[in-house]
Amino acid sequence: MLKLVQFFLKNRSALAGRSILAGTGDGSVLRRTFRTDDANKDDLQLSLESLDDSISSATALWRKEELLSRMKALLNCSQEQSEILYKANKKALRVFAPKLLTDNIELLRAHGIEEKYIYDNPRVLSNPTDELSTKLRLLHELPAVEDFKILSPFLKAPLKAVQHMVDVSKQESIAGGNRINYLSERTDTEPVVVAKFFASNIRVYRIALDKFVSNLDICLQHLAPADVVRHLSVLAYAPASIRERLKALENSPLETIKPWMVRVPDIALGKSFEAVIEKGKQPVFKDSVTGVWFETYVIKRMEALLGCTEETAKDIYDKCKGFVSLVDNIELLVEKKIPPEAIVKHSLILTSKREDLQQKVATLETLQCLRNLNDVIPLCALKVYQLKKVVTNLNNEPLGPGSTNRIYYFADSTGFTPSEVAEQFARRTFMFRVPKENFLENLKLFMQHMNREDILADLWAFKYSPGIVAERIERAKQVRGKKLMPWMVRCPDVVLEKSLQLTKESGLVLGENETIVEYFCKRLGFDREVANSIILKAPSVRNVRITKVKKVIDYLLDELDYRPQDIALNPRILMHSLQTTKKRMNQLKEIGCRPKSLIIVCRSQRQYDLFVKEWMNSKERMKKVKQYG
C-alpha cells in the first residue's frame, strides 16, 4: 500500500496549471496586470498529491508547445521541423489525442524507420497507432527483404492493400523472392527506388504473376527501364493491347516513347501526333495527364500576350478550366486594345467560344455614348442574346443631359469606375430592367443616406418602389441614425423590427457614441489599455451583440462571483453561448468543481467531456488513496 501512495506522490501534476484551465493567446498585458501569487495553485477541491501526468496525456488537451517539445525530444529535430510535423497532422488532432503523434514516433523509431522518412512523410503519424503497428508487423513478414527500411513508403498505403501484398508475396514463387527484388534486378534499379514506386502503385500486386512478368518483358523491349519503374500501372493492361499500342507508337512521328502513351485514349494520342507534325518537334508531356503539352503551350502564350508571370497565367488557365479558345480569345481582346490588367481581372469572359466573344465585342461597339470599350468589357460575361437585349435597351433609354446610359450615370453619381459598375450589373442583370424612374429616384435616396460601397455591393434594393424605399429609410433612420444599409430596404418587416429593437437595446447599454472598449472600462473597471488588450486577444468580441456581452458578464460576476480579471484573461467566454455556459457551470457545480479559469467552459464538447471524465476519475482515485491510506 505504501508503494501505491508513493507512486501517486512521485507522479503528481498540477492540472489547473496546465492548458486545461489556462488560457492562451497574446494577452501579455493581461497576464502582467492580473498576475497573482496563487496563479499556479490548484483550484480543484482535491489534493495536488493525487494527480499524475497521465491526466494531461489522456485528455488530449496538451498545449501546442508541450506537444512540439515532446516531438522535438523524440526526433531531435529543429523547431521548424516540429512545426511542419504539427501542421501536417493538425487535422488528425481534431479527432485523436496529441499523444497519438508521440506514440507513433516511438513506434516507428523502434522499428528502425529513419527520421528523414518521418520528416518527408509527416502524415504517416496520423495513422491510428494500432493500425500503424499492424502495418509494420505485416511488412516484417514480407519475404526476401534484406533491409526493412526500404519498405517504409508502404506505411502510407491502406492496411488492406498491405495485407493483400504480403499474402500474395508469401504464396507466389518468383526470382528474387518478391516482385520488388525481381523488378530491381530486371531494370537495374535500386530496391529502395522500386519500393517507392511500388507503394504508389500498390494495386500492381493485384495483377496475376504470369501477366506481371509477361507485360514487363514486353515493356522492357520498347521502353526505358527507368520509365517502366515510374509507370508500373501500365503493367495492368492486357498484353495484346500493350503490343498493339507500342507497335503504333513505333510507326508514329514521336521521337521517344513513354509508358503513359500506352494507356491514354486514342484521341489524346492523336493530338500528340498532330502537335508533332505541325510544330516539327517533340512536344512537352507530363507523365500521367493527357494533353499537358497543350497546357504548357497556352500558359507560355498567355505570358507573352499579357506580360504576366507564369503563376498568373496558370491561375487564369485553371479558372477557365483549360478552355480550348483561351489563346484565341486573348488575342482578340488584345487586338481590340483591351489592357492586360482588364483581361486578367475579368478572365471568365475568356470561356466563350471565339465566334461568340467576337460577336459580343461587336455588339458592345454599337452602344451609344460609349466612352471606351474597356468600360463595358465585363458585360461579355453575359450570353450573346442577353447582351444584345441589354445594349438595345440602353440605346433606347438615354439618361441625363449628356444622353448617357445607366452604367455611366451610376458610375458618375457614385464615383466608381464604369468597369466596376458594369461588372456588378453583369451579375445583377435586373438593373437593366428596373423602370427608369425607379432607378433614378432610388439611386438618389441611397446616395443621400448610405455609403456608396454598400450600394454597389447590394443592388437588390433597387427592385423596390421609391415609396417603400423612402418609408424604410425613414423608419431605420429614427433608430440607427446614419448607419443605414441597403438590406434594410428589402428585408421582411419582422426582420427590420427585430434589428431596430436590438439597436435600441444596444443603445441603452452602450449609451450615445460609446464603443465596446469604453463599455469594458466602465463595466469591468479596467483602464483603456487593458480593455484594448481584451479586444486584441479575442478580436471577434467586437462582432458580438453588446446585449449578449452584458448578459454573460452579469451572469459571471453577479451569479457566479467571478472577478473581472477572470473574464479579461479568457475573453472567449463572451462569445460563447450563454445557455451552454450555464449548462456546463451547473454540471461542474454538481460534481464539486469550480474552475478558476473559464477556458474549460469554452472548449469543444469533446474536450469538455474529457475534462469532466478525468475529473471524476481523479476524484475516485483520491478516494481510494484516502481509503487505503
Keywords:
transit peptide; mainly alpha; single chain; flat; MTERF; nucleic acid binding; disordered N terminus; 629 residues; 36 helices; MTERF_sf
Strand residue content: under 5%
Catalogue the unreliable spans.
1-28, 35-60, 279-293
User: How many whole angstroms does the radius of gyration measure?
Assistant: 35 Å
Shape: flat
Instruction: Describe the largest sheet.
Output: none
User: Which structural class do you get from the secondary structure elements?
Assistant: mainly alpha
Number of helices: 36
- Count of extended strands: 0
Considering DSSP H and I runs of 4 or more, what fraction of the residues is helical?
55-70%
The average pLDDT value, as a whole number, equals 78
Instruction: Report how far apart the termini are.
Output: 8 Å
Family: Belongs to the mTERF family.
InterPro entries: MTERF, MTERF_sf
GO molecular function: nucleic acid binding
Pfam family, one: mTERF
Structural account:
The chain is mostly helical and 629 residues long. The protein has helices spanning 2-10, 28-33, 54-59, 64-75, 79-88, 99-110, 115-120, 129-140, 159-171, 179-187, 191-200, 209-222, 225-230, 239-250, 260-263, 266-279, 292-306, 310-319, 326-335, 340-345, 354-365, 373-376, 384-395, 406-414, 418-427, 436-449, 452-457, 466-480, 487-490, 493-510, 516-524, 528-537, 546-559, 564-569, 578-590, 605-628. Helix 31 (516-524) crosses helix 32. The termini are close together. The relative contact order is 0.07. Mean pLDDT is 78; it is low at 1-28, 35-60 and 279-293. This is Mitochondrial transcription termination factor. It comes from Anopheles atroparvus. InterPro entries: MTERF (IPR003690), MTERF_sf (IPR038538). GO terms for molecular function: nucleic acid binding.
